[in-house]
Design goal:
The complex is a heterodimer of chains A (155) and B (564). Chain A is an alpha+beta fold and 155 residues long. Chain A has four helices and seven strands; from the N terminus they run αββαβαββαββ. In chain A, 29% of the residues lie in helices and 30% in strands. In chain A, strands 3, 4, 5, 6 and 7 form a five-stranded antiparallel beta sheet that branches. In chain A, strands 1-2 form a two-stranded antiparallel sheet. Chain B has 564 residues and is α/β, with parallel strands linked by helices. Helices cover 37% and strands 16% of the residues of chain B. In chain B, the strands form four sheets. Chain B has a six-stranded parallel beta sheet, with helices on both faces. In chain B, strand 15, helix 16 and strand 16 form a beta-alpha-beta unit. In chain B, helix 15 packs across helix 16. The relative contact order of chain B is 0.11. The chains are: A alpha+beta (155), B alpha/beta (564). At the A-B interface, helix 1 and helix 2 of A face loops of B.
């Protein structure tokens, strides 16, 4: 979409005005600074998704739209999670981070901050594997994605 | 040569061929008004409330097919315009609305008369712009007109901060514009059109259901040729009235909640439904679960998002209705085939039986003025040639039922948003666009009071609008629903303390007439129409208990009508 003030609110406004649900949304400028790329996750029947697609295409700021689920694609989300890691728990958190191929990116005497990338399910699983009481803070980027193979979203 | 933003603004309007701007001055647009003052190509019409400016521009647009242009100040100027913008949005009317804004340095500062105009109007415009640099002004204005008038038309708002109006830059108005993210489809897909033609040739009980899209695309002539070629029955939506001649035998009248019995029954029983430039609005479909149960549906629309939004269709065709109709005519002729004549004759026989129900009948011997009588008389006295605007409610439905429009752009009403207060200012816009034509505003005592201040504007510009006020002392449509669905508890639907409309009109320098006897309806109307250069306010005291029939109650199927 056009990298212009107001473009994001047109999309967000469309979803709230028409009663669609935004599960997650990520947006950042592309290699062409006049364009932004937004990845938006929503849910609905085929009819609802079709209507959302058409309504989004109608927005003047939307340049091109692709339904990732129409073909094979890769989804990724970044999570930073701050976990209490003291005494015996310290080893356990480290081990879990390794199992999930996470990286510890910040350390204090009592805390680890783990960086983890993957699809939403993997991040959920990591959170579930940790002792819940030890989780201090979780930040997730929202899902972004790219199609596999030749299929590409280009202008 | 370098020009100020305000001068650029005026040059843009001139280069765009704008004849008329409807507006109201204020602090943030003073530089623009100063520039307008120093030229005479673009006429500015001063209204008495910004809502009226948008409705007047809307009436101008609907009656001419050209975009309506509005200029208002920041803050309250912009918020007052919102109702008119939303009205135009719901009916896909091309408007370009310029709102003043506080200087860029003050934006977001809660400055005097500041409001986030772009934010407030976002959900009810086709697109909007905030111009931050004077260098962008001309191109933005070009884009605004381009977006408003192409594809599915609609209102576009351009917000201009005061300092942008005073800064200077080189003026160049782009002749053409292209936008990478905006390329409306115009040409219908030939294979889809072929499928539709095939379906129509196989039809045994077909109906054409056409809407405002035909008016907007100026495709009336193609529609008439297409309909006559096929011999199919045709019904119009409220927005489509006039795009097919109402006096033609193939015309079944309006469909929907207050549509005719024959139109709704034909819809319900058809086997092929061809929807053209119509959007399956809930006032048309009734309960979608019960809508056209036996029909295969073709839908032609320029907006892909309108297709299969409410009702799943079998043959979608995205394209401008005029182009698609002409292509269909071409293909129909090329096949050399005709629809099944015997089946069609049988279908028409059935339709004539429904038509014989005479669903619009009313008591012609009443000693009270019946609103239907007023509309029938209006049709007779104006010989069906008037431009008729209406407000919203019972009078709107009676006007739609009883005034037989034979030409498009003559029937001007707020169909989608249902905006009370629309009719009178819209009539001003129509009258300004067509100074020599008869322009009638059909209204009620509820609606007219929502923009009554425009009597003053009409005096200033000598607009001889004829107001037909169906005064039944009730908010009639509300009263009707309360009678039918709320056991006659008439909550707040009685208008107490009504003004003396005759003296009110006179106090604004116009002519007022009070008509109470059914026998006086026609003579009074003839007298009013003779006053070519005067605004005449005709106050008809009508039967307060009259209801609009037929009626498809909310949630019912189209065939489940309440009849007289």
């Amino acid at each position: 979409m056009e990298n212009e003030a107001g473009a994001l609110s047109r999309v967000a406004g469309l979803f709230s005005a028409r009663g669609y649900n935004i599960e997650s949304l990520t947006v950042a400028p592309t290699e062409d600074p006049s364009l932004s790329r937004m990845t938006l996750v929503t849910r609905g029947t085929d009819e609802v998704i079709e209507q959302i697609t058409k309504q989004l295409n109608k927005l003047i700021d939307v340049v091109k739209l692709m339904d990732m689920y129409e073909g094979p694609h890769i989804e990724r989300e970044l999570m930073l999670i701050k976990v209490r890691a003291a005494n015996g728990g310290r080893e356990e958190v480290k081990r879990l981070a390794d199992i999930f191929r996470g990286r510890i990116v910040d350390v204090t005497d009592t805390l680890y901050t783990v960086e983890l990338t993957g699809d939403g399910e993997k991040l959920d699983a990591f959170i579930a594997a940790l002792p819940q009481a030890d989780i201090i803070e979780v930040v997730r980027s929202g899902v972004t994605g790219i199609a596999r193979g030749e299929r590409a979203l280009r202008v | 040569m370098e020009l100020s933003g305000a001068d650029i603004f005026v040059h843009c309007l001139q280069d765009e061929g704008v004849e008329m701007v409807f507006g109201y001055p204020g602090g943030a647009v003073l530089p623009i008004y100063d520039a307008l003052y120093q030229q005479d190509k673009v006429q500015h019409i001063l209204v008495r409330h910004e809502q009226a400016a948008t409705h007047a521009a809307d009436g101008y647009a609907r009656s001419t097919g050209k975009p309506g242009v509005v200029l208002v100040t920041s803050g309250p100027g912009a918020t007052n315009a919102v109702t008119g913008i939303a009205t135009a949005y719901m009916d896909s009317i091309p408007l370009v609305v310029f709102t003043g804004q506080v200087p860029t340095a003050l934006i977001g500062n809660d400055a005097f008369q500041e409001v986030d105009s772009v934010g407030i109007t976002r959900p009810c415009v086709k697109h909007n712009f905030l111009v931050k640099r004077v260098e962008d002004l001309a191109e933005t204005i070009k884009k605004a007109f381009y977006v408003a008038t192409t594809g599915r038309p609609g209102p576009v708002v351009v917000d201009i901060p005061k300092d942008v109006s005073t800064q200077v830059t080189e003026y160049r108005y782009p002749k053409r514009i292209s936008m990478r993210s905006y390329n409306p489809t115009v040409k219908g897909h030939p294979r889809q059109i072929r499928k539709a033609v095939e379906l129509m040739l196989e039809a045994r009980r077909p109906v054409l259901y056409t809407g405002g899209g035909v008016v907007l695309d100026k495709a009336s002539r193609a529609l008439v040729e297409f309909t006559r070629l096929l011999g199919f029955p045709i019904t119009n939506t409220l927005m489509g009235l006039g795009s097919y001649p109402a006096t033609d035998r193939q015309f079944l009248g309006m469909l929907g909640m207050h549509g005719t019995y024959e139109a709704n029954m034909a819809m319900h029983n058809c086997d092929v439904l061809v929807a053209i430039g119509a959007r399956f609005d809930d006032r048309v479909t009734g309960n979608v679960e019960k809508f056209c149960p036996t029909a295969r549906i073709v839908h032609v629309d320029i907006d892909p998002a309108s297709i299969s939004k409410n009702v799943k269709v079998d043959v979608p065709i995205v394209g401008a209705v005029g182009q698609v109709l002409r292509e269909m005519i071409k293909q129909l002729k090329a096949t050399g085939r005709r629809p099944d004549e015997a089946a069609l004759a049988e279908w028409w026989k059935q339709i004539e039986e429904w038509r014989a129900m005479d669903c619009l009948k009313y008591d012609r011997d009443s000693d009270q003025i019946k609103p239907q009588q007023v509309l029938e008389t209006l049709y007779k006295v104006t010989r069906g040639k008037a431009y008729v605007t209406s407000d919203v409610g019972q009078h709107q439905m009676w006007a739609a039922q009883f005034y037989k429009f034979d030409k498009p752009n003559r029937w001007i009403n707020s169909g989608g948003l249902g905006t009370m207060g629309f009719g009178f200012p819209a009539a001003m816009g129509v009258q300004l666009a067509h100074p020599d034509e008869t322009v009638v505003c059909v209204t009620g005592e509820g609606s007219i009071q929502m923009c009554i201040q425009e009597l003053s504007t009409c005096l200033q510009y000598g607009l001889p609008v004829k107001i037909v006020n169906l005064n039944n002392r009730y908010l009639g449509m509300v009263r009707q629903w309360q009678e039918f669905f709320y056991q006659g508890r008439y909550a707040m639907s009685y208008m107490e303390s009504l003004p003396d409309f005759v003296r009110l009109a006179e106090s604004y320098g116009h002519v007022g007439m009070q008509i109470t006897d059914p026998a006086d309806v026609e003579p009074a109307m003839k007298e009013a129409m003779k006053m070519k250069d005067r605004l005449v306010f005709m106050n008809f005291l009508t039967d307060p208990a009259e209801n609009v029939y037929p009626m498809v109650p909310a949630g019912a199927g189209q065939n489940e009508m309440i009849l007289v």
